[in-house]
Prior knowledge:
Elements: H1 3-8, E1 13-18, H2 24-32, E2 38-40, E3 46-49, E4 54-59, H3 64-69, E5 75-79, H4 80-92, E6 100-104, E7 110-117, E8 132-135, H5 138-148, E9 153-156, E10 172-177, H6 181-185, E11 188-197, E12 199-203, H7 212-229, E13 233-240, H8 244-249, E14 258-262, E15 267-274, H9 280-288, E16 292-298
Parallel strand pairs: 1-4, 1-5, 8-9, 8-10
Antiparallel strand pairs: 2-3, 3-4, 5-12, 6-12, 7-10, 7-11, 13-15, 13-16, 14-15
Bound molecules: 1-O-pyrophosphono-5-O-phosphono-alpha-D-ribofuranose and zinc ion.
Amino acid sequence: MSLTAAATARDRLRIAIQKSGRLSEPARALLASCGLSWRESRDKLFCYGESLPVDLLLVRDDDIPGLLADGVCDYGIVGRNVLTEQAGERAERGLPQVAFELRALGFGGCRLDIAVPEEWQWEGPAQLEGRRIATSYPYLLQNWLREQDVQATVVTLSGSVEIAPRLGQADLVCDLVSSGATLTANHLKPVTTLLQSEAVLAGPQVPFADARAELAQLLLRRLEGVLKLKDSRLLLFQAQRSAVPDLLKLLPDAEAPTMMQVDGADTLALQALCHGAMTWQRLEDLKHAGARGLMVVPVERTLA
Length: 304
Ligand code: PRP
Ligand code: ZN
């Protein structure tokens, strides 16, 4: 299928995701858990939606905001770092905002950090005055430098930022840090954070005016359900009626529990959907507060 032909067909949704890289597998897995399945094109750049008319376009992450701006794609799964950088650049050029962060997706966490040579004694942003900083995020960096009231030279590189100091192109870098291994390998150390990033769903803030509207709603609703359940468990237990107020205090992350009366008026059976991690410690605490027969049950699906 040619892309131009597909771009004019407005009864299918098209989502851009990273072709290869840290976000690519988790993005696909997340969409698959929303009930989507696809048939891949031979060049593996396009996945045709089979279970629903929702197609995937596999691209470079940096291209995703542009594809959304051009209307080639309806949604994108992209790092907040890439989205904010390009939104800032568009704003500076006086262009309207088109791709918004609709939902943080809880994976691909990383930071945009200033990193300096290991031997530097870090004293604060003022130390960067007059220095050359290599980055792929010139807008975010300039913005931060302005806030810090620091004058420095921004050296924009599209990749291999971390070796710029060794090559003499810059004195330090402003780059993404996830495990920190890349910095360490290049004898750099992170000293301050400009942006906390993770994968986000990016797209328009206004509903679509055609058949995509209903499809988009369905997808966002399923996505919400999947994300909400990520750490969720159904907790089952019994307790004396008098113990219930204390027990509920231990479940601040639970939705209003269902309570049923068992034998007589005093014993209740409770079931509560909890959204936080259900650790052994929490179960011990609940037991001490009077919960009996505690059971933690995984939850497969929810639909609001
Ligand atoms: C980032 C960044 C570093 C690396 C850091 O690149 O530019 O090279 O990850 O990760 P680490 O702290 O775990 O070593 P990324 O993989 O996001 O690719 P891209 O920026 O070229 O898209
Ligand atoms: Zn990239």
